Amino acid sequence: MPETPPGYIDNKAAHLKRLRRVEGQVRGLQRMVGEDTYCIDVLTQISAATRALEAVALALLEEHLEHCVTHAIQAGGDQADAKIKEASAAIARLVRS
Question: Do the Cβ atoms of 42 and 33 come closer than 8 Å?
Fold first, then answer.
């Protein structure tokens, strides 16, 4: 079966923009620690960066379910079972993090 494009392909630019923003937040955190910023302020910014990454992860997961898993289910067979297990494992990792 031919490889399908990733489910996020239509929103790739938006995801990259959000990830660049998170990258900037992490650089800001490094700067804050380097400048001996108050602990609570650093923790607050870590929380914001974590939420931003979680938002990207949830968007990617939703797109994966809507595109990749749906496509596999329509195709049927072992691929459908594998995609469902793969998605379940990804959800479990997100919940544990």
Answer: yes
Q: Cα-atom radius of gyration of the chain, to the nearest Å?
A: 18
Residues 71-89 pLDDT 10s: 899 988 888 999 999 999 9
pTM, entire model:
0.82
* pLDDT score recorded for residue 2: 44
> How far is the C-alpha of 50 from the C-alpha of 41, rounded, in Å?
14
In order of start, what are the domains of the chain with their CATH numbers? Answer: 11-96 (1.20.58.1000)
Got the DSSP string for 23-74? HHHHHHHHHHHHTT--HHHHHHHHHHHHHHHHHHHHHHHHHIIIIIIHHHHH
**Per-residue confidence (pLDDT) for residue 5, from 0 to 100:** 79
Closest CA to 11 of 45, 62, 82, 50: 62
